[in-house]
């Protein structure tokens, strides 16, 4: 069953139910259930997250007989009725209960109670690190020994066949026999077996491409056996398979598909022409007759991996041919390369930041941003290194962020609202492009833009539904745009009957901007056209005004304000501003 992201919230009292309903919006696939002890065993394996709003004792007694293994148990969080404490009770790391508790606490303004030792001591949890780097833990029995040593300040020695950035506190060694952790796709790295079988932890990078050719109707079992045999004979781990590569006409071969699905492997297919473009491969007449390709397994493995040489040339076992190559580019770019998040934190407080964005901020070492926005998210960043300068030093801030990210830190550049709307995202890209032209090494940088609720969303929501029809967004700031161009765009929007959202209405304290904008609209729209003025949407100082083009200047409009001018159809009703979509007229 696919439990991915399913959340159940269980409550006992009315207060619990109220809290559950507030929480419901936090996760997509959420169900609220009245707690009964007999309900829990039924849902135990059906949800990824279980949130219990009740006393910890009840929860412990109920789930005790159900607990099996930290790899498969759901994340369990216990919440008190007032929402003050969110306790990560079970499956803190792998299951994600620590993150869940933090998210819930943030959302409710409470506190997360986390007790896993690696978090408490702020040390990397080995299993989490492995998961984040897409390394497969071969045998969990080796883990507790190393993790315990680590917590007692014995640094784990790591041997790795692949390039990977180590967390602080890990030591690199080039002697596999002395390593605590071995990162390799080779089954065994040396001939002496360790003194104790579970003192060394093998982590498997998923970096093998297995090229497969097979006769029609070959069973999944036969394919699996052939793959296992070839990998075993060549000292390679089955867990390191990243994907299967074959010719397009075999992409739907039942046996191959069943095998791939069983181990959650992607199948990558190539046309005969693509396969034939690979040079230096032996030709099989029989294969050519059947498929039009000179060969399948070898060129497919090479193409899928990007490698120029095979690790294992074609092996034929029964109806199956197999060749293996190693992926040249690391699969999980994000963990190996410096990370730069460009994060939108929405209009105001933490509850309007997406959980995904919150997570990125949490994962960052350094936060770069502007004072006001940082103040609004103080709670999230209190333990972080913060680079904050005034409003006009945006360029310096972005440069600093890029520099820090390139030095290996994970950095979040923070913008209020959405980072790609009159904010930092574009600037970061411009700086990177320039750095690139100067041949600085920015290729290694892994950038992720994370959206936020923009002022236009927040203000429209507060006003009702003014953006139900085509709209234009115009910034009245002439700091970076000539005023003539702004006027031209205002006129175009006004003329075309776009609902128009005006950002930065009082740039650099100049009131004439909004006066001029109003005058332009009055040339094309009636004085009665509804106008919404929202200041500090979703912040403590929020103020919402619905007026019209005639009277709008009677109200204070400042830099924390967004103005929305309706189109010719926009109407007001019960203190809401609504632009009809036209459903009423559609018969
Ligand atoms: N990136 C931001 C916009 C930055 S430009 C976003 O996507 O929202 C700054 C302008 O945004 C302000 O002058 C104001 O017009 C608008 N703005 C930002 N936050 C706002 C809020 N909470 N309420 C109303 N307007 C806001």
Commentary on this structure:
With 587 residues, the chain is α/β, with parallel strands linked by helices. The protein folds into 5 domains: 6-115, Rossmann fold (3-Layer(aba) Sandwich); 126-205, Udp-n-acetylmuramoylalanyl-d-glutamate--2,6- Diaminopimelate Ligase, Chain: A, domain 1; 208-332, 2-Layer Sandwich (Nucleotidyltransferase, domain 5); 337-453, Tetrapyrrole methylase, N-terminal domain (Cobalt-precorrin-4 Transmethylase, domain 1, 3-Layer(aba) Sandwich); 463-578, Methyltransferase, Cobalt-precorrin-4 Transmethylase, Domain 2 (2-Layer Sandwich). Helix content is 32%, strand content 24%. It contains 21 helices and 29 strands. A 6-stranded mixed sheet has the order 2-1-3-4-5-6. The protein has a 5-stranded mixed sheet with strand order 7-11-10-8-9, with helices on one face. The chain has a 5-stranded mixed sheet with strand order 14-13-12-16-15, with helices on both faces. A hairpin with a 5-residue loop joins strand 4 (75-79) and strand 5. Helix 8 (220-233) packs across helix 9, helix 17 (394-406) packs across helix 18 (424-437) and helix 20 (483-495) packs parallel to helix 21. The longest helix has 14 residues, at 220-233. The chain is globular and about 85 Å long. Residues 331-336 have low confidence and may be disordered. The site of S-adenosyl-L-homocysteine has 26 residues, from helix 19, strand 25 and strand 27. S-adenosyl-L-homocysteine binds at residues 347-348, 415-418, 421-423, 454-455, 458-459, 503-505, 534-539, 559-562.
């Amino acid at each position: 069953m696919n439990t991915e992201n399913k959340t159940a919230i269980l409550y006992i009292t009315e207060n619990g139910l109220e809290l559950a309903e507030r929480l419901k919006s936090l996760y997509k696939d959420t169900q609220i259930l009245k707690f009964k002890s007999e309900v829990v065993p039924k849902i135990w394996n059906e949800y990824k997250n279980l949130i219990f709003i009740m006393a910890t004792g009840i929860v412990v007694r109920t789930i005790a007989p159900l607990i099996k293994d930290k790899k498969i148990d759901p994340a369990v969080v216990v919440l008190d009725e007032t929402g003050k404490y969110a306790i990560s009770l079970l499956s803190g790391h792998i299951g994600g209960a620590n993150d869940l508790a933090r998210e819930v606490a943030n959302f409710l303004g409470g506190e997360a109670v986390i007790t896993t030792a690696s978090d408490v001591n702020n040390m990397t949890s080995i299993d989490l690190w492995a998961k984040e780097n897409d390394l497969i833990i071969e045998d969990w029995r080796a883990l507790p020994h190393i993790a315990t040593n680590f917590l007692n300040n014995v640094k784990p020695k790591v041997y790795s066949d692949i390039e990977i950035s180590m967390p602080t506190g890990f030591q690199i060694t080039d002697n596999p026999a002395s390593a605590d952790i071995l990162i390799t796709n080779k089954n065994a790295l040396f001939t002496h077996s360790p003194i104790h079988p579970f003192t060394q932890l093998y982590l498997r990078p998923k970096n093998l491409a297995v090229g497969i050719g097979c006769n029609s109707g070959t069973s999944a079992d036969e394919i699996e056996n052939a793959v296992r045999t070839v990998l075993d004979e060549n000292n390679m781990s089955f867990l390191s398979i990243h994907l299967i590569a074959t010719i397009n006409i075999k992409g739907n071969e039942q046996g191959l598909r069943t095998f791939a699905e069983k181990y959650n492997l992607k199948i990558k297919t190539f046309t005969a022409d693509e396969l034939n473009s690979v040079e230096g491969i032996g030709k099989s007449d029989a294969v050519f007759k059947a498929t039009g390709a000179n060969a399948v397994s070898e060129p497919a493995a090479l193409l899928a991996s990007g490698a120029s040489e095979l690790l294992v040339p074609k092996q034929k076992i029964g109806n199956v041919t197999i060749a293996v190559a190693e992926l040249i580019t690391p699969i999980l770019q994000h963990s190996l390369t410096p990370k730069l998040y460009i994060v939108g934190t929405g209009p105001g407080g933490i509850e309007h930041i997406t959980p995904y964005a919150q997570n990125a901020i949490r994962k960052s070492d350094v936060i770069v941003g502007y004072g006001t926005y940082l103040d609004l998210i103080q709670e999230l960043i209190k333990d972080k290194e913060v680079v904050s300068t005034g409003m006009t030093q945006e360029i310096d801030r972005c440069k600093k962020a890029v520099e820090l990210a390139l030095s290996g830190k994970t950095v979040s550049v923070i913008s209020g609202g959405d980072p790609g709307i009159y904010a930092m995202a574009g600037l970061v890209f411009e700086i990177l492009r320039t750095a690139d032209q100067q041949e600085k090494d920015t290729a290694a940088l892994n950038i992720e833009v994370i959206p936020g609720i923009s002022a236009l969303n927040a203000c429209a929501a507060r006003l009702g539904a003014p953006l139900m029809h085509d709209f234009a967004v115009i910034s009245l700031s002439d700091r970076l745009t000539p005023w003539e161009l702004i006027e031209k765009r205002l006129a175009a929007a006004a003329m075309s009957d776009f609902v128009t959202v005006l950002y930065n209405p009082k740039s650099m304290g100049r009131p004439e901007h909004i006066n001029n904008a109003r005058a332009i609209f009055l040339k094309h729209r009636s004085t009665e056209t509804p106008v919404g003025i929202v200041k500090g949407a979703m912040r403590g100082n929020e103020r919402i005004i619905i007026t019209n083009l005639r009277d709008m200047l009677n109200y204070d409009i400042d830099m924390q304000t967004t103005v929305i001018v309706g189109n010719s159809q926009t109407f007001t009703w019960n203190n809401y501003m609504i632009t009809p979509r036209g459903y009423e007229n559609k018969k």
